[in-house]
Each structure stands twice: as structure tokens, then as C-alpha cells.
Amino acid sequence: MAQFRAGSPYRILLSYLRASLRARLTDRWDLAVGTLSIALHHALGIAFLTLVFRHLPHLDGWTYPEVLLVFGAFQIVSSLFYFFFSWTLWFSSLYLVERRLDFLLIRPAPTLLLVIAEGSGQSLPEFPGALFGVAICSTALRLMHYPLSFGTVTVYALLLLAGTAVLGGLFTLMALSGFWFRARRSPAEPLMSAIEFAQYPQQIYVHWLRLVFTFVFPLAFVSFWPTSWLLGRSSALVPLGSIVWASVLWVAVVFVWRRGIARYESAGS
Amino acid sequence: MIADGTQATRRLVLLICLHLRRSACYRANVILDLLGALLTVVVLCLFWSAVFRSQTAIAGLDLSYMLRYVLLVRLILTATSPSGVAREIADRVRDGSLLVELVRPHGLLSSIVAQCVSSCLWRMVWIAPPLVIALAILSGPSLALCRLPAFLVALLIAGTYNIGVEVLLSLSAFWLKRNEGVLHARGFLDALLSGALVPLALFPESFQHVLAWMPFRGMIDVPIGVLLGDFPHLALLHPAAWGLLVWIVCSLLHRKALHRFDALGG
Description:
Number of strands of chain B: 0
Oligomer: heterodimer
Helix content of chain B: over 70%
Strand content of chain A: under 5%
Number of strands of chain A: 0
Distance between the termini of chain A: 28 Å
């Protein structure tokens, strides 16, 4: 009889992610169509901005390449968000109501990370959206003749990853409310439309809304503040704001997750 | 023949009521769909307000026109665009469960049309009122109520065309099996070329001449133009002709589609 060798929890997690991705890749047609739909979605956004800026020199002081850069950064962050965190939409119905969480709780790896790994596999078609976003950002920077350095690009990439963590933390917290308020549809669903506020420069919104998106519901840290920092339009403290928000949200996620798991009960499966 | 027609109409109405009752079971969906629709409208209104801070007019359009345009686009899409029917039919063709629908006395075409109509009616009940109120506040006395009947006719024509295309895409599943790519392409073309994204007046002039012949403008651009007085009532003939053509193709393909269908038992 072959002897079972237990690996570290994170090796198990990696294997889980690989298996989930492989399962998704079995249907290549579906993956291709998913990628096509994301490409068309991006193309619509670009067409919208291009058609508007044919008649406009700037939008509240933001030129077309600058607005395109904000849009491209938003596409990178939102694609990564949907890749890693679209499970927040079906967490309540699949994991709590249908008890899929039972299978994951008995596995020797952190359960929340297993949920993220499983969800990532399902959302594989979202990942190419991040590459389209990179292409949009590159085009925008070329149009601006912006002088890039390795350090600037690295910090910008980290800020966008922090933006993904901010968005992921927000929606994970909302999904975890399912431990207390069980329902088929996630309370995060209508707020998925609210993410659209992040794809344009925040200057276009009224003052109180800008404060809300910076200090209450930090959508401004998704793409606007990182891009403002890159273009030298904001304070050098912006990276600190992204890191603070991401840290606060994920500490809250760990706290709420532990409380939620402690009260989770199942009739077995 | 008249009795057959009356019976078919009665069955269709019963099917629509059945689908409406099914939609009413999912009350949370109402709030979620309403919030989603309103948030999109708010974002666009704020965007256009910022655009017109930089410039008082664009291609002859001002802020007041654009805000009404955004509200009308959402209203028209709610009233005339069924959601998800073609995808559902494709799934049922693939797994063979469409067989259950085919043995029923009302026929496949009636079933698809009933689903489409009920989808539009259900969303109209919840999403239309706040949009209409906002529109009334924005327009005030400048909205000529005498153009309302023509607008309603334009909506009917747009709805007929959209439902015809949805039926056509549903029937395409009998040949393509997987029609998601076609559905996504259709969504992209509809959004870009109908005026749902931006008014067609913002497109390059040469492109506008091409768009004038295509069926897409009948979905958004013509109904809004009729209501706001940009187009005469005769402009409705063009989308009506396209709608008729789509339904002729649907009726021709319908029988061929049923001959192609196969399923393993029920």
C-alpha cells in the first residue's frame, strides 16, 4: 500500500489551484468565448472614451491619454479582482446554503485560501482582461510620452495589486456576512455595479462622493489614486493610503472569517 | 382560423402570466437588478455632467439633452431587451431538456416569445418608475406629450425587433450548439451601434451614413429621436421594415431548427 505523505498546507493549496485551473481548461471553447467577451467589454469602454474625446480637449483637467490610463489601470485591477474574488458572488449560495464549505473544512490547508483557489480556477477567463488592461496602460503612456523607470513601474504595479487587495477585502467582508444572514444571492451583487465609479477620474464626482470613495468605500484606491501618484498629480502619501486600506480590510476579513467559521454549522453531507 | 389565432393568443398570454409569476418568486432579484440599473445611470450622469463642465455643447448636444438621453436609454433597454433567454434555450438544446418544451401544446416559438415578453414586463414594473419620475423632473414642461404615442409605437417596434433577434439567436443554438460567442458579439454591436453607448451624432459623419441603413439605430436612436422631436414619425418605417425581415427569417428557420433537434429520451 502506498504511504500517504502529507505536504505543507501551501503546497496543497498550490496543487488545489492547479487542479482547479486544469478543470477549467478542459473546455477550451468556453475559455475562448469568455476571453472574447472580456475583450469586447474593454473595446466598448475604449470606444466610449474615444468617441467622447473626439469632441473634448479634456475632462475636468484630465486629457484623453490620462483618462485612458485610469481606465486601463481599472481594467487590470478589476480583472484581477474578478479572477481571485468573483467567488464572493456565490459564496453564500454555494458554500453555505449548498454546504460546499464542509468539504473544504476537512482539508489540511487554510479554508479561506482554498475557497479563493477554487474560485480562481472557475474565473480563469477573467485573467486575460488584466493583460488587455496592461496593453491599454502601455498605449496611454506612449501617447503621453511618459518617461518610465523600473522603480516607478514596480511601485505602480504594487499599488494596483494593493487596489486589488482593497477591492477583494471589501467584497470578501460582504460575502462573509452570509455566515450571519444566509441568502441565495450575495449582498455584494448590487455593489458590483458600484465598481464602475472607479473607472473614471474622481474629479468628475461631487466633493462628498470623492470623500466617500477615499475614506469610507475606498474605490478611489483601485485606479484613481495610484494613477494620480504616477502622473505626479497627488501626494507621495498615496501609496501609504493603499497599503493602510488593504491591511485594515484584510485584518477585518481574518477576524470576521474566524468568527463566522466558529458559528458555522452543518447537518453533514 | 380565427379561432386558432384566438386560442394561440390566449395560450401566449397564459404563458406570459406563468413566467411573471415565476419571476415574482425571486423578490431579492428585483432589488438587486434595480440597484444595478440605477447605479449605472448615476455614474453616466455624473460623467456627462463633468464633460459639459469643460464645454457647454458637443455636436449640438447639451447637458440637459444628455441627461435625458441616459435615462431614456436605460428605460428603452429595460422595456425592449429581454435578458438571458437565448442562453437558456441554448443550454436546454445542449442537454436535451428542450424536449419537454416541444411536447407541450403551445410550441417552441410561443414559449420563447412568452419568456422574452415577461422578462421585459417584469423589469419594466420595477425599474421604469424611478426612471420615468427622474425624466419628468428633468424635462419639465419641455417634454411634448403629443409625441408620446409615437414614442410608444417606436418602443413596440424596437421590442418586436429585439425579441425577433432573441428568437433568432435561440434558434441558432440548434446549429451552433454553443452560441455564447454570437451572443457576446451581438451585445457588443447593439451597445455600440444602436446609440446605447453614446448618441450616434458623436460618431464620425461617414460612419453615421452607414449606420443610417443598419437596423441597430431602431433600438435606441430612433425611439429617442421620435420622443425628443429630432425625427419625424415616418422614421419609424425603417426599424419596422427590419423587424418584419427578422420575423420572416425566424418563421423560415423555426421549422428547420426543429428538424435538427435530437435528444435521448425525456
